[in-house]
Amino acid sequence: MTEFLAEVIGTMILIIFGAGVVAGVVLKDSKAENSGWIVITIAWGLAVTMGVYAVGSFSGAHLNPAVTLGFASIGELPWAKVPLYIAAQIIGAITGAAIVFFNYLPHWSRTEDETTKLAVFATIPAIRRPLSNLVSEIIGTTVLVMGLLFIGANEFTEGLNPLIVGALIIAIGMSLGGTTGYAINPARDLGPRIAHALLPIPGKGGSDWSYAWVPIVGPVFGGIYGAIFYKAIFTNGYGLPFWILSVIFLSVLLTAAGAELRRSRQKAEQLEETTVS
User: Fold this and answer.
1) CA atoms of 203 and 102, how far apart (whole Å)
2) b or e along 182-205 (b: 16 or more beta carbons within 10 Å of the residue's beta carbon)?
3) Concatenated DSSP letters for 13-46?
């Protein structure tokens, strides 16, 4: 099997199980309806585990452009392979999302809410604050890539490593995913979002392209920063990229925090004015 086909199949498996569990939980009249966030996070972890077991020996089972870019940035993958990997991951994600659509055919028309249907395919933030949502995606993906490097990226298919990687995904989902739905993977969001736009889903509404940049930019930055941060801290490789990305990350953090503090002050002032009047 070629590396390209391996990434297509691995990412397809990831989305079949990942988007599939979301569909089962949120679509009307599914037997899994309303089974909750814990079910979703566990299934996403197992989805990654199955994808890694399936194709890890052929491509390393990145299944995620953020992982591919992160590994390439520290020399773990030749840059010449990056476009091939990312293209395969997006194709696999679109294919997996299409399979989920066909699996749940009767349930789309039973589900009236457009946002619920979109949530099967793409991430939707709990509170829509693009800058704060970006911070969440950066943090989650930084933790992901650092975690993969902790575990040992080149050992994924040996013994229990895929299960440990799955446990990492579950931990990220349960601890950090409640803000944005934890894309932490541009292909996981972009591929199914494209599928949502193209598929004849009854009453589907728009694909929310105005938000789509967040689960792309955040994970890409977080993936690269996580890899470079790991190299800097654990191999003493403090270089210019580390300092540049650290300054950018800190700037984004402070800007997002400042924006939220201003909103809080404005809300408190409005409440005070209302109370006085």
Assistant:
1) 16
2) bbbbbbbbbbbbbbbeebebeebe
3) HHHHHHHHHHHHHHSTT-TTTT--HHHHHHHHHH
Indicate yes or no: pTM above 0.90. Answer: yes
| CA–CA gap between residue 137 and residue 76 (Å, rounded) | 23
The tens digit of pLDDT for each residue in 179-217 reads 999 999 999 999 999 999 999 999 999 999 999 999 999
Minimal CA–CA distance to 213: which of 150, 114, 137?
137
For residue 42, the one-letter residue type is I
Question: Residues in the chain, how many?
Answer: 277
**Six token digits for residue 119:** 């949530």
The rounded Cα 258 to chain-centroid distance in angstroms is 25
Q: Are 175 and 53 in contact (CB under 8 A)?
A: no
Task: Decide if pLDDT at 234 tops 90.
Answer: no
d(CA 194, CA 83): 19
Return the number of other C-beta atoms located less than 10 Å from residue 69's C-beta: 24
* Cβ pair 68, 86 in contact under 8 A: yes
Contact (Cβ atoms closer than 8 angstroms) between residue 82 and residue 72: yes
Q: Which residue has the higher pLDDT, 155 or 262?
A: 262
CA dihedral 215, 108, 173, 128 (to 10 degrees): 50
**What number is the average pLDDT over the span 95-117?**
98
The closest alpha carbon to 51, from 184, 193, 187, 165, belongs to 165
Cα-based torsion angle of the residue sequence 109, 112, 114, 116 in order, rounded to the nearest 10 degrees:
-90
Q: Give the Cα separation of 187 and 171 in Å (integer).
A: 20
Please give the residue that has the higher pLDDT: either 265 or 68: 68
Q: What is the pLDDT of residue 19?
A: 98
